[in-house]
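Predict structure. Chain length: 254.
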Amino acid sequence: MGKPLTAEQIEERRAKRAARRGGGDEGAKEQSEALFIEGSVRPYQRHYVVLESHNDPMAWPAKLERSPEHLVGVYVRAIAEYFDGNIKKSPLLVTAAIPFTGACNGETQKTPVMPTEDREGGAHDVMVFPELLRIHNVLPSQSTCAQLIRIVATLLLQWLKDSAAEADTPRNLWISSHYGGHRYAATCIVYPSGDWFGHLNDESKAQNLVEAIDDEDPLQLYELWRGRMGLTSAEMHQAVKDKAQAVEAVAENA
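Prediction complete.
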């Protein structure tokens, strides 16, 4: 990770991406600025995480955000309606999550987030980032935040758990519902910074991620960095370009 790129290599990568996409619409042009996978995160300002009362992520439907019954679907439809049906205009991201405690077979904690018998019908907890809030007993009537790619994601969670045991700072690991980008699996979001990482598909990458977090320098992994909450796509692209050039300069002066 962190392999230095020359200015010529940076321009070559950019030219190849632009050629593959044909330089058509503005979205394709923006994507062609990426050197790696940065900018693959939809820009957003706040993340709502609906905490599940059950402990089986395999029970989630394939497209949770489109489910007519799940709470995440309720949130997404309400938000989309506010933005004239275009959820991509919203500064909010909504997912579901379940605490991860250990096994690689999808098992999580054996007890729900809060006993269901103590809750009013439909009540649930919501975590809000970047404010780091946990709101208890939200009712559906009041509410008009690692992505689960089955085996790969649960392996990633186990790798992170093992690596975090030796890290400087305690970690809280959650299994998250789908939030787009299967081709970037396995994906991880790190809060409170809101940094996204992809292609975390082996144990060494998970270890490198933990080290980058401990160093408070997520862009150590700029080749696996997808973006950050609060940044525009252009800002994500520029961040990776600046980091790659800084690494190159250090290598040249070593």
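Summary: DSSP finds six helices and eight strands in the chain.
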